[in-house]
Amino acid sequence: MGRMCEPLVVGRVIGEVLDSFTPTQTMEVTYQSNNLIFNGRELLPSTVSSKPKVTVHGGELRSSFTLVMIDPDSPGPSDPYLREHLHWMVTDIPGATDASFGREVMQYEVPNPSTGIHRFVFALFRQKGRQAVVMPPTMRDRFNTRRFTSENDLGLPVAAVYFNCQRENACRRRRTYH
Length: 178
Fold this sequence. Notes:
Layout: H1 6-10, H2 13-16, E1 26-31, E2 35-36, E3 41-43, E4 53-57, E5 64-71, E6 85-94, E7 103-106, E8 118-126, H3 145-151, E9 159-165
Parallel strand pairs: 3-9
Antiparallel strand pairs: 1-2, 1-4, 5-6, 5-8, 6-7, 8-9
């Protein structure tokens, strides 16, 4: 599995959401103001209010990829009974481009956790060909990444990254006394 996936194991992304995989692509996720996503980074909802730029590095233009963004902690980490909530899906992304060149199957939904710290996972899958995703999801709640990838013959992810997010006013602030 390699050192690249260790943060995904520690963050319980591998295990709860994804099966073990060996990354074969590099994916860069950047929100407004050049907020590059790395595993475990904490961001506020206001920082992720607009769709990120997701770039697939490597791969040939003939390659096609599917991107899913999910919240495995919905509606709250202590009782994630809506697991997984689908926030975004883009298919048919040509290799060596970004998600804007793909087909948006499910529009971007702004992360807005109401309770606890949520993980938001971006997973990238190599398609067997163009327009390979034949069964798009019908709803956002109770999405299952493993079932979706199995039904669409996508296999294991080729790249993944996640960030943490909690309610804006839930952020802890250190008090200073004078």
